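TA notes, week 10

Several of you asked for a full example with nothing omitted. So below is the full record: structure tokens for the whole chain, then the designed sequence directly under it. When grading your own attempts, check the secondary structure regions first.
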């Protein structure tokens, strides 16, 4: 019989923490969720989910099964395992670990012997050993690896992905010593189908950066090739479809308006920050960032060219952007290339509106962007831009809309459009 009231305490109830809470409850664990955002906690306790992957119904079922949310960290002392899933953004273009440090301070105030603390926030190699543990040790004299146990496990959640969810996506785990590792491994085995062990926390931290840098670099490659193919009058989409038929040694990536979200544009910068400390840039990362960051302006320029051909001036023209989330079927607009595109168009005097069933409102340049809500108004625009191909858009008959379309995503439901 465990001395702890909860099997799991989660710090940070966002895209990562909330699914962990719900899946852990499903697995029969007792779970306490802590978040500093009091408004979020109130809504969660009312059964209102802030993320698409967890429906209100699922959340309510979890609450009925005992899931507790609070903005008071005291109950962390009652949790056997504590998972940290707080943001790790960039501030002034540098990794910002202040949220991890704050979470560590909350743990330190409440830590008790026997607890197992796992960092899941994406970060650079060395964070668990060099930042998290020393921060807790400033207050607590419990011995890491003997009295309290530590590890790192990268989160691979892919919001909106219907096939790979929290439970069936293999999870990489690590610990600072054998005792920590064996406790962390057996914890995740209760909630995840496949657990993959690596030898240390630095390796586990690096796994996540490899995965996202790989995506960043390959997306940049296909984006650069898309620009070159356009100049060479070669259809990149046809090339990608044909190359994809190779059953080995090729993974297909698609061109697009740039990269967005909390991971792909940010995580590689954590890697380059760390390697710059040893005097080495990650050259691939920096080049990939440059190419991907240039894509929103490329999309705008292609549309300007198209408008020129149509003899329409940009100033006072009306453009409607379909989808502003950074990827399909979710509402997250963080780092979305749509933000740069909208800002760029606005600076050219374009009247820009967006149509996105997932996004209620959007602020760019401190101003609310006009939200189009009626499909009947589509014909009133001078140009349509497909930015995020939400599944819902497949029900729109684009061929019936008598307005030119620029498709930055190669979506299968638009036949007659200029593509990236
Ligand atoms: N979103 C993803 O798809 C994804 C995927 C894999 C990894 N990650 C990583 O996971 C981490 C969390 O990302 P997210 O998307 O869930 O972020 P999020 O912004 O959706 O949620 C983070 C939550 O942490 C809370 N928080 C911040 N500081 C806190 C503190 N000191 N104590 C308690 N709560 C605190 C915030 O209020 C927020 O609710 C990041 O490091 C991110 O890079 C995210």
């Amino acid at each position: 019989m465990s001395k702890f009231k909860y099997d799991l305490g989660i710090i940070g109830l966002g895209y990562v923490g909330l699914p962990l809470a719900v899946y852990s409850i499903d697995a029969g664990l007792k779970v306490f969720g802590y978040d500093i955002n009091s408004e979020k906690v109130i809504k969660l306790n009312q059964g209102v989910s802030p993320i698409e992957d967890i429906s209100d119904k699922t959340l309510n079922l979890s609450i009925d099964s005992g899931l507790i949310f609070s903005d008071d960290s005291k109950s962390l002392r009652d949790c056997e395992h504590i998972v940290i899933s707080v943001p790790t953004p960039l501030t002034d273009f540098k990794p910002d670990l202040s949220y991890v440090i704050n979470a560590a301070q909350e743990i330190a105030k409440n830590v008790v012997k026997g607890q197992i603390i796992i960092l899941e926030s994406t970060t650079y190699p060395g964070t668990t050993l060099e930042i998290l543990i020393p921060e807790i040790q400033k207050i607590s004299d419990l011995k890491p690896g003997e009295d309290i146990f530590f590890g790192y496990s990268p989160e691979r959640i892919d919001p909106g992905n219907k096939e790979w969810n929290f439970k069936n996506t293999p999870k990489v785990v690590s610990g600072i010593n054998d005792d920590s590792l064996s406790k962390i491994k057996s914890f995740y085995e209760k909630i995840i189908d496949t657990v993959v062990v690596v030898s240390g926390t630095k390796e586990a931290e690096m796994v996540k950066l490899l995965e996202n840098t790989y995506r960043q670099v390959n997306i940049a490659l296909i984006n650069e090739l898309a620009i070159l193919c356009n100049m060479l009058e070669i259809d990149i989409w046809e090339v990608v479809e044909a190359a994809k038929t190779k059953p080995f040694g090729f993974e297909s990536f698609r061109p697009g308006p740039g990269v967005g979200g909390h991971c792909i544009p940010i995580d590689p910068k954590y890697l380059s920050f760390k390697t710059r400390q040893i005097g080495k840039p990650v050259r691939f990362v920096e080049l990939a960032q440059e190419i991907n960051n240039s894509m929103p302006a490329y999309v705008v320029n292609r549309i300007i060219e198209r408008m020129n051909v149509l003899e329409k001036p940009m100033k006072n023209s009306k453009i409607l952007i379909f989808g502003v989330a950074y990827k399909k079927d979710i509402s997250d607009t963080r780092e979305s290339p749509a933000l740069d595109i909208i800002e760029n168009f606005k600076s050219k005097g374009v009247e820009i509106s967006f149509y996105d069933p997932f996004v209620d409102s959007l602020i760019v340049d401190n101003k609310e962007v006009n939200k189009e809500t009626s499909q009947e108004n589509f014909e009133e625009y001078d140009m349509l831009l497909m930015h995020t191909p939400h599944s819902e858009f497949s029900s729109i008959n684009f061929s019936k809309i008598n307005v030119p379309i620029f498709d930055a995503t190669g979506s299968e439901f638009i036949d007659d459009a200029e593509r990236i």
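The CA atoms of residues 54 and 151 lie 26 Å apart. Use that as a sanity check on your answer.
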